[in-house]
Design goal:
Elements lengths: L2 E2 L5 H6 L4 E7 L4 H17 L3 E7 L4 H6 L7 E6 L2 E7 L4 H11 L1
Parallel strand pairs: 1-3, 2-3
Antiparallel strand pairs: 2-4, 4-5
Length: about 100
């Protein structure tokens, strides 16, 4: 299961984890987000031991979304060593996301 990322746990789960991270910025009312959500959950189930897979609800965590300049959702940010190294905006396939994660490992 994907981690619920908040302002309070972002440092621990993403910045200081020592792992590559995929963070999905989403909202419950967003149709495309509901399409990407199950894909992110599948990746979390399959890769949760080797990468941090998480989701940020932009309605609940507006400050975190603003910090990363999220203007469109879904936006998927890829982190390595605590820094954003790649980004995907909009619907993505499981293979697209897995390929981006694999390239960072």
């Amino acid at each position: 299961m994907a981690h619920t990322i908040t302002t309070g746990n972002f440092e621990e789960l993403v910045k200081n984890s020592g792992k590559v991270a995929l963070v999905d910025f989403w909202a419950a009312w967003c149709g495309p987000c509901r399409m990407v959500g199950p894909v992110v959950e599948e990746i979390a189930t399959e890769m949760g031991d080797t990468a941090v897979i998480g989701k940020v609800d932009v309605d609940a965590e507006g400050d975190l979304a603003m910090e990363f300049g999220i203007r469109n959702i879904p936006t998927l940010l890829f982190f390595k060593d605590g820094q954003v190294v790649d980004k995907h905006v909009g619907v993505a396939t499981k293979k697209q996301l897995e390929d981006k994660l694999a390239a960072l490992m």
